[in-house]
Model the fold of this input.
Amino acid sequence: MKLLESAENYLETIYVLKKELGEVRAVDIANHLGFSKPSISAAMKMLRENGYIIVNKSKYIALTREGLDVAMKIHERHRTLADFFTSLGVSENTALEDACKIEHYISDETFEKLRAHLKTEK
Done:
């Protein structure tokens, strides 16, 4: 199933927050993204129902294997694209914003070619 951009962003956010905080709750996601708690709650319900996250009795959110795979893929694209843009002289803020937009739409083929090209330049 092809995830919507917003679902991929939520999964990536959970991944990043888990690394930063150790445990993630919906309120952490809301604070990080600047979204309302009801919006986060609706998104977490959809992600849980589709098998991308689990929520334990203490309301901590964890990625399933499938959710982790998506989150890691999107996060790698985000970092690689942002690093590439900053290497071209783009400001860090703009590079991060543009990477966030492009990471969802760039084809696997193009991304792999870009990553291979960047490795040969180092």
Q: What stands out?
A: The chain has a mean pLDDT of 93. The first helix runs from residue 5 to 21. The chain is about 70% helix and 5% strand. The chain has two domains: 5-69, 73-121.
